[in-house]
Write a structure and sequence with these properties.
Helices cover 54% and strands 6% of the residues. It is of the alpha/beta class and 613 residues long. The strands form four sheets. Strands 7-8-10-9 form a four-stranded mixed beta sheet, covered by helices on one side. Helix 1 packs parallel to helix 5. Its EC number is 2.3.2.26. Keywords: Transferase, Ubl conjugation pathway. It comes from Rotaria sordida.
Length: 613
């Protein structure tokens, strides 16, 4: 019925007036209202209804064509006008829009990469991109409209109870997350021109503007990544000031100095800080290293020694040999499923989460890369579904391919004799795990193969390590508030942890270097250094140089001006730089790839102070 009505409707041009007066349009809206009400009332059958409707290829395309016929950007201006002028913010056209968005949310969850990006089933990538633009603008305007209205009802509460807003927002966040995993839109596609000025938006936040905070909570992607990093740092600075004021009265009772033996670095760190309060973690922690002879190492901890402490603890704990983390096929880290055989493993994961949270809190860049399906759990967005099946490709490509085969299998799946269970090799012993209760006794059929694929994906990426993830996340959020973390996508969160992955910006480094011991920017050795880095070193060697000095191969997110302590070059013996005939390229290359014994003076570094000597 609806297909026939759409075909008839498309023979005539849809106008704004027809949205409210045309009988054919109203008839289509009534049918979509019926389905939309079914979805809302019969929640247990929601997925089955959406699945059945999605099988009608022409329905999705017809709804999409209908929206495009209303006006530019899917009739954005016209639909907003209807919303603003209607006291109840309701019109049958919104049921049609919600049904379309619910179907798109379902498709964005179940379509694999082959179907969405190559085959472009249901909608083309260009259509998905246009839909994102429409949703982004529409959701932004709905928030603005409600906060600009003078009513006794809280705008936030009104939006939370607004079914149209919730449906559109859910799809928007789902598509943004899918885009962050594999892009199908331009980089600037998600930005809103009205909030392009980060300084004015930050000023609104400083004034505790409720609309600005709600925009940041609901659609943070409308600001650039670097603007959100600046906002995060502003929040952290405010948090530090608050903690500092609170701790001033406890100064005599607060312990912030710890001795750590290098021979038992992780053990000492765990025992010293495992029960420390959030106040201790958020304030300055002083570390004194004890060497192998039992003597305290010389040095004043001005963030540099603590930075080394954080980096050494993470290097040890994220090492797969430590048995807490495993490595995926593409060299990213996630909690080991057999880490539960380690004593106090849950307390250890909570502690490691705090260490990572402290690193981000203090802008300490770490040379670790976490698996996307693991990082995703640090971001706690509500009411947003995502596909664990897509995550599976990062963990187990073979299993992903096998499940994909089952998904597209035309024959009788029951002939494959699959059950809701999985066999795994645990320390040389094959163990069978049920992915649903009594799963080893339940056969997979054509009717439930999608459920099987979903259950298997959830088990592999979450269920078997859920306790480790829970404790790690709790530890991380001891320092990093959920509303801060939720401002970022999974790839962006990885950048917060490990810094900028692009080539070292030498001009930025030159502008933010401190010279000591007689060196200055026009000194011959300094000129040779920059010339060697720029002309002789490859991108990989420049990263190694940065790692040699700072212990990280990546630059800070906001550039080297935010490096703490600042990048410093110190001259130890001024007579040496005047020697002639030395190959500077060879000397500087040797400092990152020393492979021979030499009596020559070679450059050295103190990574805890970001110091090149």
């Amino acid at each position: 019925i609806i297909r026939a009505k759409f075909e008839k409707l498309f023979h005539s041009k849809t106008t704004t007036d027809k949205l409210t007066t045309d009988e054919l349009t109203q008839s289509i809206c009534r049918i979509t209202t019926f389905y939309q009400k079914l979805i809302q009332i019969l929640m247990e059958l929601r997925l089955q209804i959406l699945c059945a409707l999605s099988l009608q290829d022409s329905l999705i395309s017809s709804l999409w064509q209908f929206l495009n016929n209303i006006g530019p950007t899917c009739g954005l201006k016209e639909l907003l006008k209807i919303y603003e002028t209607n006291k109840e913010n309701y019109h049958p056209i919104f049921d049609l829009l919600q049904l379309f968005c619910n179907l798109c949310s379902y498709l964005a969850t179940v379509l694999d990469e082959e179907e969405m990006y190559k085959e472009q089933k249901y909608l083309t990538l260009e259509s998905w991109s246009q839909l994102c633009l429409f949703l982004n603008q529409f959701v932004y305007r709905l928030i603005r409209i409600e906060f600009e209205r003078t009513t006794t009802t809280s705008p936030k509460l009104k939006l939370e109870n607004n079914q149209l807003y919730k449906t559109l927002h859910q799809l928007l966040i789902l598509l943004h997350e899918r885009n962050s995993r594999k892009s199908f839109t331009p980089d600037s596609h998600w930005l809103i021109r009205e909030v392009k000025s980060s300084s004015s938006f930050m000023a609104d936040l400083e004034r505790d503007d409720s609309c600005a905070f709600y925009l940041l909570e609901q659609i943070p992607h409308i600001l650039t990544f670097k603007d959100r990093v600046k906002i995060l740092q502003m929040f952290i600075e405010h948090d530090k000031e608050k903690e500092c004021n609170e701790v001033s009265s406890l100064r005599h009772h607060l312990r912030n100095y710890y001795e750590i033996h290098r021979t038992n670095l992780f053990g000492d760190a765990f025992q010293a800080l495992r029960n420390a309060s959030s106040t201790v973690w958020k304030n300055t922690i002083r570390i004194s290293f004890i060497n192998q002879q039992g003597l305290a190492e010389a040095g004043i901890d001005q963030n540099g020694i603590f930075k080394e402490f954080i980096q050494e603890v993470t290097r040890q704990t994220f090492d797969p040999a430590f048995n807490l983390f495993k490595v995926t096929e593409n060299r990213t880290l996630y909690p080991s499923p057999i880490s539960d055989r380690t004593e106090n493993y849950l307390h250890l994961f909570n502690f490691i989460g705090k260490i990572l949270g402290k690193a981000v809190y203090e802008q300490i860049v770490l040379d670790i890369e976490l698996a996307p399906f693991f990082l995703r759990h640090l971001i706690s967005r509500k009411n947003v579904n995502y596909s664990c099946f897509d995550d599976l490709m990062f963990l187990d490509r073979d299993l992903y391919n096998n499940l994909n085969f089952i998904k597209h299998y035309d024959g009788d799946v029951s002939s494959l004799t699959l059950t809701y269970s999985i066999d795994e090799d645990v320390l040389g012993e094959v163990v069978t795990y049920d992915i649903i209760p009594c799963g080893r006794h339940i056969n997979v059929t054509n009717d439930d193969k999608i459920v099987y694929i979903h259950r298997m994906s959830v088990y592999r990426t979450y269920t078997r390590i859920k306790n480790q993830i829970k404790m790690f996340t709790e530890g991380f959020k001891t320092l990093m508030k959920p509303e801060w973390v939720n401002m970022f996508s999974v790839p962006e969160l990885q950048q917060l942890i490990s810094g900028e992955s692009s080539d070292v910006d030498l001009e930025d480094l030159k502008s933010n270097v401190v010279y000591q011991g007689g060196y200055h920017r026009t000194h011959p050795v300094i000129k040779w250094l920059w010339q060697t880095l720029e002309q002789d070193f490859s991108r990989e060697e420049r990263a190694l140089f940065l790692r040699f000095v700072t212990s990280s191969s990546r630059a800070p997110l906001l550039g080297f001006r935010s490096l703490n302590p600042p990048f410093t070059i110190r001259c130890l013996e001024s007579s040496e730089h005047e020697e002639e005939g030395d190959s500077l390229g060879r000397i500087f290359r040797n400092m990152v790839t020393i492979n021979r014994t030499s009596s020559e003076r070679l450059p050295s570094s103190s990574t805890c102070f970001n110091l090149l000597k």
